Structure formats: C-alpha cells, structure tokens
Amino acid sequence: MSTLQQVAFRAGCSVATASRVLNRNGPVSDEMVRRVRRAAAELGYRAGGRTGNGRPAIGVLIPSVTNPVFAASLSSIQNRAFHAGHSVLIAQSNYDPAQEPDAVASLLQQQPTGLILTVCDPERSMALSSALPPTVLLGNLPTTRFTAAVATDNFGAGRDLTDHLLQKGHRRILFISGHFAASDRAKLRYLGYIKAMEAAGQQPLAALEISFVCSLEQLDLSDTISRLDPTAIIASNDLLALGVMGALRRQGFSIPHDISVAGFDGISLGFLGEVSLTTVEIPDGTMGAAAASLLLDMAENAAPPRHLIVPYRLRSGGTVRNLAN
To answer: Which intervals hold domain HTH lacI-type (predicted)?
Structure first.
C-alpha cells in the first residue's frame, strides 16, 4: 500500500503540502493540487473517508429525494460510482438555501472523495463558500470558482416550450413555479418564457411562485385563473404540472379543452394519465452519470474541471390544445 511520503516524493513536494491537498485543509496552488492528485492516482493512494463497507465515498446533495428527477440522477451516480469502487452519501436541502451549508457539512464529515451538488443558486449558496474537495455542480451552471458542472440549457428549454405553445395559438400563457430563490433552473426556464413571449410581441405574465414542497393535492388556482384567464399554463417541472392539472380538474376544467398544461423534465408519471403530458425531456440519468464520471476523473486523475451541456428534447403530448386551427 502506498504512503503519503511516496505521494509527496512523486509529486515533488513536501509531505505537509501533499497532506494539505489530499485532506483539503490548507491553501495550495492549482498546479500543485493537480500534481499531488495525479501522483496519488498513479500510486493508488486514497486519503478520502470510507463507508462501512470499506469503499471510498462520493457525497451528493440534492434538493429533494422524493422528486423522480433527482432519483434518476442518483441512480446513475450510484451505478457509476459502484463500478469505480465508490459508495454514495446522500443529503437533501428541501429546496431551502439555508439548509445547504449544514447538509454539505454532514457530507464532509465523512471525508468524501468529492462532491456532486445541486444547489438552489450557485452564485449565492453559502454551502459553496468554504474549502471543498473536488466538486461538480449538477443541474446548475458553473461559477467563477466552481467551473465543473453538468447541466442542460434551461433558458433555451423555457423559450422553446413557450414557442411551442405560441405556435399552437396560445397568447395568455401563465408560468407557475416553485420559488425562484429555491431553484435557479426554474428561474432560467421562466426567463426563457419571457424571451419567447416578447419575441412574439406578447405580454409575459408575472410568474406565480409557490413552494416546491407544498401539498400539491391541496393546490388552489381558482383566484389566479379567474383573474388572469390563461389558455395555457407552463409549470416549472412535471410534478408541479401534474399538481396544476389536478387543481384545474377540481375546479371543473377539462385539459386541454379548457386550459392547456405543459412542464419540464419528462418523468414517467407524465405518461400515465389519460393523455400524456407535453414536456421538455431532461436526460437526468445521463446528467448524473456524466457528473459522477467527471468528478472521479477530477479527483483521481487530476483532470481539469469541465462544463458539460446535455441536450433536452421537446415532447409534444395531449395536454396542449391547438388553438391555431
């Protein structure tokens, strides 16, 4: 088994410097970080914590363990990690920026090889303000400091879905979302909606923001519908779109005859209703696998951080009525 002294010798640095790099407890230049990690990888040296099964671990932060989107990502991360000899540690923030630092701190206590994080807003997250091991943002755009990220073009997805509804003859399109402070992905989708509406010469409506973790079976849209009279509603994710459809039906509306509904993500639940949900499919499983591969490459092979964009696909379903005919 290789030792820290051997790693330091191969990297051409002191044992103290090698220790700072591998234990992430002090300032070291980026070049030295790459050299020490490369030496450790070549020698098979592991400084990270291990789970009860003896494997090194990857720490993963997601907003919610109940959303199928993150379940798909986690499954792919776990599969990729398992084949690389790693376990996965999971924490959730409940879409609350204030919970993120404690959630990340709990992961760091296990001394993971690295972290895969989906945060509410990477530019404002306090969880990203301290020294972290190799880190990949999943679903978030990269920042100046955290340049490794795997995401899709949420702005483009919001624009394209809105264009689809406009082409179907809809003009009063309402955007319903979880709180934007809880999801930069939802905010980008709304900004894409605004762009498409303005490009078409239409007045965008102010978004209706509700809690991502509210009881959707109790969602009441009666005041909003009577006040704004939309012909179509875009929800910021598919779970919310299904909750919107339930709320509309409780009010006696028929979908899509009275009001059309569309969402984002492409979760399998959207296929199970009387009509399939019009949605933008986001390949969350592919994104999770890519994030895990990128993280392991950075942590074990000193690979440079990269920003990977995964394409989305618009899937036209039966929940949008064509008003143009």
So the answer is: 2-46
